[in-house]
Every structure is written in structure tokens, then in C-alpha cells.
Design a protein that fits this description.
By secondary structure, this protein is an all-alpha fold. 72% of the residues lie in helices and 0% in strands. It has 9 helices and no strands. It has helices at 4-18, 23-29, 33-38, 40-46, 48-71, 77-103, 114-120, 129-150, 157-180.
Length: 194
């Protein structure tokens, strides 16, 4: 049976396997409403609202995972500060997704209760700071690969740049978490997005 981190990575891979964000959706995320408007017809046909809601659901999960870690009492002060900072980044991603979904006329997927995330992520098995960091690192790696997976779908270099910047946030999070765990850097190049 897969653990919570493996399930999160699997969910992100499933998300990428089923759909990718279109140029119009990313244009809205990056504040380029005029460009998005030129693609408006394709948005609804391609099901971007549904795709964006899957991404939003993943951001909700990340925000709540950091909340569970913060409330666990397992994180030392410097690590707790970093976790709260990373949670803030995910809240900004969430807010951008919510705004985009609404601009497209969709209804953003609702965030679940914290207890639902605790159960899904098996928060009751978190017994140490390392356990919390391991979970967060697995979720960040899944997010990294999800964002990297959408970059090739863009013809507009600026839109690909936005996706790359989001992926960079996730790689930074993963790197800091792995460092805090005392893990080495990846053994080779091209370690992400595979």
C-alpha cells in the first residue's frame, strides 16, 4: 500500500497524465488577461476549469500539510519558520488559481476540513520533525514534477516562463527540505520532471 507522500506524487502524475494547462489558463495566472481573452473559446472546450481545479486541490493539500506540520509541535523554531514561509507560497499559488477559475466562469473547488487532510496524509503517523519534513519533501517533489510537466505544452515563451517560475518555487522548497533532512543533492543532472 502506498504511503501519503507516494499517493500525493501519484495524484500529481495522474493530473499530468490526464491534462495540461493551456496557454490561456497560464496567461490568466500570470496576469495577462488580454492574451487569455484571445484564447477564451478554447478554454472551455479544453476543460481548463476542471484542470485548474485539480491543481487547486493539490495546492489545498500542500497548504494543509504545512498546517498539520506547524500544529504538530514537532518542528523546531527555525524549521517552523521555513514551513510557514512555504505555506505562504502555496497560498499565493492557490489565490492565483482561484482568481483564474473565477475569471473563466468556473467555481473553484472547495478546501476540505483540516481533519480530512490529516486523515488522507496520515498525520497520526508523524512522530518527529524528520517525518514532517519527509512528507513535505515528497509533496514538493510531486508539485515540481507537475509544473515541469506542463512547460512543453506552451508555444508562447512567456507562458512557459511562468510555469518554470512556479516549478522553481517547488524545487527551492524541495531542496531546502532535503537539506534540512541531511540528504545529499540528487546524484545526477536532469533530476526533476521525469
Amino acid at each position: 500500500m502506498k504511503n501519503a507522500g507516494e499517493l500525493a506524487v501519484s495524484a500529481r502524475r495522474s493530473f499530468l497524465g490526464k491534462a495540461t494547462l493551456t496557454a490561456a489558463a497560464l496567461a490568466l495566472l500570470s496576469g495577462r488577461d488580454a492574451l487569455a481573452a484571445s484564447h477564451a473559446g478554447a478554454l472551455k472546450e479544453a476543460g481548463d476549469i476542471a484542470i485548474l481545479n485539480v491543481a487547486l486541490g493539490l495546492e489545498h493539500e500542500g497548504i494543509n500539510a504545512y498546517q498539520l506540520g506547524a500544529q504538530s509541535g514537532l518542528l523546531q523554531k527555525p524549521v517552523l519558520d521555513v514551513a510557514v514561509r512555504f505555506q505562504t507560497d502555496h497560498k499565493e499559488h492557490r489565490d492565483a488559481l482561484v482568481a483564474t477559475i473565477r475569471k473563466l466562469g468556473g467555481k473553484p473547488v472547495e478546501e476540505k476540513a483540516l481533519g480530512d487532510y490529516a486523515k488522507a496524509l496520515k498525520a497520526d503517523t508523524l512522530k518527529s520533525q524528520a517525518d514532517v519534513l519527509e512528507l513535505a519533501a515528497r509533496l514538493e517533489l510531486g508539485a515540481t514534477n507537475a509544473y515541469l510537466g506542463v512547460i512543453p505544452s506552451f508555444k508562447d515563451a512567456q507562458l512557459a516562463k511562468v510555469a518554470a517560475r512556479l516549478a522553481a518555487d517547488e524545487v527551492m522548497h524541495w531542496t531546502v527540505l532535503n537539506n534540512a533532512l541531511g540528504k545529499p543533492l540528487p546524484a545526477g543532472s536532469l533530476s526533476f520532471g521525469a
